[in-house]
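Sharing a chain and its predicted structure for anyone who wants a worked example. Both blocks are below, sequence first, tokens second.
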Amino acid sequence: MRNVEERFMIKELYTKGVSISEIARQTGYDRKTIRTILQGPLVVSRPARRPKGRKLDPYIAYLERRISEGVLNGQKLYQELLAQGYPGKDRQVRQFIEPFRAAHQRQATVRFETAPGYQAQVDWGSFGTLDHQGRQRRLYAFIMTLGWSRTMYLEFTVSADLAWWLRCHIHAFHYFGGVPSEMLHDNLKTAVLSHGIDGVIHWQPRYLDFAHYYGFSPRACQPYRAQTKGKVESGVRYVRGNFWPGLHFTNLLDLNQQGRHWLDTVANVRVHGTTQVMPCARLPLEDLLPLTGKPDYDTSVVSYRRSTKDCLVSYQGNYYSVPAAYAQQQLLLKESEQGDLFIFTLDGWELARHRLAVTHQQRLIIPGHYTGIAVRPLGSAPCLAQSLPARPASPRVLEAPVVEARPLQVYEQWVEAMI
């Protein structure tokens, strides 16, 4: 009950000449207690308690070995112990591995700085949904950050497929005025198909062709090591915390216009917390690969369709006409970034060009494709028609024969004559 401070005070009073009776009166303790304190040590060590055996103790060596192998999932380890006959609950297992998990989360990472023009980091962020062209679509933010200058590019899309992955790269290259030597990103399927057992990365072929065209080297983070691209991860958080809160926009175009204004007036003109320099001031010093004289990579979405006998091809829930001579043939379709649909022969001859329909179940038909075939315009919609099969000639209508009316006695006389 008595702590070190009280024992020290009692010993100090006695050293100064205060009697045991007076000390007992001042402290309220019995004189026997005062004598025991004066005769004993200042710090009283309590006898160590004999540790109580735990059900987990026989399995600790196994847990330590598995933890050294990087296994820190409590439920997984608990299931492994159950298979070995562990009779306890999962709580003891979780309590045992918790210090190891905390130490793993506190592992220090060294900030990796790159030379000018060497690396850019890329990532997607998810920002809920958006009403786009009459449909509810998921909204994504493409973010690219140059490693040396910290200059950022931001673009919102309603698709994160391969075509838009490449298109956003091109838009970022134009915004920066060049191409970095290396591109670092996650193991997303638009870039990486798989990791081989031997560590070899199997790249998405079109993305690899895209990288070769612009002269950069793709690089994927190690699996489960997203902190490798910490610069762009910080950029995603910066967009969420600085640009996104309280934002109002009417459509995707308006959102991207506001995003570009934010880049030019806030994100890239602020004094960066790490470099202590505005990104826009460092950007001219980035040694980027030039874009001069290089046409943009073709990011059209390519597919193949067979035209119907009425000279139509089906694409994304709508029908588009082709010249009548190419009915019931295999054709090549290309959807451009600008929303145009080009239809080619397999040899590459352009047959038709249509504007993609916004809604579904539409027939976009160019009347000239039906030259020589009877067509009937539908309503007043421009360039819309519906092919009609040739109408068969009306069959000749024969007149009914004139039947002479005779009395019944005439038929009876004919019957008697025949008998």
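Comments welcome. The chain has four domains: 4-39, 57-105, 119-285, 301-387.
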